[in-house]
UniProtKB/TrEMBL annotation:
PANTHER family: SIGMA L-DEPENDENT TRANSCRIPTIONAL REGULATOR YQIR-RELATED, TRANSCRIPTIONAL REGULATORY PROTEIN. One of its GO terms (biological process) is regulation of DNA-templated transcription. It holds the Pfam family Sigma54_activat. It comes from Neolewinella xylanilytica. Residues 144-373 form the Sigma-54 factor interaction domain. This is DNA-binding NtrC family response regulator.
Length: 444
């Protein structure tokens, strides 16, 4: 596994050197900074799983640095060093998003196990995005794992468009890594030091989505007790990622088009226009051209977004990338489980390559996590895979029992929906109680 990358921030040179040497002896990659400003420069040019920072420094305090770290690199975890008797600083740091705090007088005893847990959490957060944290500086697209021709072509397009500031439309099936790709575009742009804000347009109703995106004035509707800034304001100067843009209502599409055209919008319940400077990246798993023809998506917005389209392939179209993705997720989840799993058998890999990946990279991630949990040896083997995994699609119903077919179908739908039982029940067209009964019946 690649050694974790740790950034030490302290204005005391002796402590920086001592702590750096201590971590290097434990096989960590270490960089140091004398103040918060240097630290933020490091974070904008390289990736770190963990930042260890002193709380009391000249200039920006460590507690304030925590907020800046989470803004620049949300997946990076922060551990704060506090002087004896200044626990209040540690509590403030935790409120700002720190992973934990350690008293300086006791750090030699406690820092290593705490750091190991912080690294695991940071890598888990990157794994949830299909990304890998520790790469050399200046290579944001290294977060996109794989060397197949189709993914290399997508990365090449991403590298070209990233510095331009143009709106981008990412297309591809669910679970193919569109948010990871959007983050890479942001990280490779001149806006990399500013916020990246992501929102799923399908997860919110029309009124709530409008309020989330554009904000509202106090009294605009029942329950609006105070002014609320929207996500466009929060992302000002940075990038906003609108996932599942095809689910947005047409009247909200008109407001989005206005932002694209001149950066202006109206808060809900407000009459005075506001302006922002935001890059917009959208994603969809729908055929928007067909939605335009059906009248479900505005043609003017589509053509404005479709200036630069990048299509991400399904995992079935890039099966040669499965070994690299498998190795990546195996490292993440074996570390999380505290297991020493060195690899996987040829039979395990063949089963993955034979599988029809309806859930794409997200489904692969879930399969690997499950296999790691079940594995007691030193490598992943086929018995750790779900029942019937990797088999070709079933033949006609007379080939096998109805119960056997139902069990397999439920199992695959669970994998497709990240194990979310409510979503699985909706997709199957049954009630949640019925699903639980079937899961119990089939031992799933």
């Amino acid at each position: 596994m690649t050694p974790a990358h740790v950034l030490i921030v302290d204005d005391e040179a002796d402590l920086r050197k001592l702590l750096a040497r201590m971590l290097e002896l434990e096989d960590y990659r270490v960089a140091t900074a004398a103040n918060a400003e240097q630290a933020l420069h490091c974070l904008r040019s390289d990736r770190f799983e963990v930042v260890i920072t002193d709380v009391r420094m000249s200039g920006l305090k460590g507690t304030e640095l925590v907020s800046e770290v989470k803004r620049v690199a949300p997946a990076t975890e922060v551990i704060c060093l506090t002087a004896y008797g200044n626990i209040r600083d540690g509590v403030e740091a935790m409120r700002n998003g720190a992973f934990d705090y350690v008293e300086k007088s006791d750090y030699r005893k406690t820092i290593l196990p705490l750091l190991a847990r912080a690294v695991t959490k940071a890598r888990q957060q990157w794994a949830d995005q299909g990304a890998t944290p520790s790469k050399s500086a200046g290579t944001p697209f290294d977060a996109v794992i794989g060397g197949s021709a189709v993914i290399r072509r997508a990365v090449e397009l991403g590298r070209h468009v990233a510095p331009t500031g143009a709106a981008v439309l990412l297309t591809g099936p669910t679970g193919s890594g569109k948010e990871v790709f959007a983050r890479a575009i942001h990280a490779a742009s001149s806006r990399s030091g500013e916020k990246f804000v992501a929102v799923n347009c399908a997860a919110l109703g029309r009124e709530l989505l409008e309020s989330e995106l554009f904000g509202h004035k106090a009294g605009a509707f029942t329950g609006a007790n105070r002014d609320k800034p929207g996500l466009f304001e929060e992302a000002d100067g940075g990038t906003i990622f609108l996932d599942e843009i095809g689910e947005m209502e047409t009247d909200l599409q008109a407001k989005l088009l206005r932002v694209l055209e001149d950066g202006s919008f109206l808060k809900v319940g407000e009459t005075q226009e506001r302006r922002v400077n935001v890059r917009i990246i959208c994603a969809t798993n729908k055929q928007l051209e067909a939605a335009v023809e059906a009248g479900d998506f505005r043609g003017d917005l589509y053509y404005r977004l479709a200036v630069f389209v990048i299509t991400l392939p399904s995992l079935n179209e890039r099966r040669e990338d499965i070994p690299a993705l498998l190795t990546h997720f195996l490292a993440i989840y074996s570390a999380k489980a505290g297991k020493r799993i060195a690899g996987y058998s040829p039979e395990f890999l063949r089963a993955l390559q034979a599988h029809r990946w309806k859930g794409n990279i997200r489904e692969l991630r879930n399969v690997v996590e499950r296999a790691v949990i079940l594995t007691t040896g030193t490598q992943l083997e086929p018995p750790a895979l779900p029942y019937g995994f990797g088999e070709q699609p079933e033949g006609p119903p007379d080939q096998g029992s109805l119960e056997d077919l139902e069990r397999r179908h439920i199992q695959r739908m669970l994998l497709t929906h990240d194990g979310n039982k409510a979503q699985t029940a909706r997709a199957l067209g049954i009630g949640l109680t019925t699903l639980y009964a079937k899961l119990k019946k089939y031992g799933l």
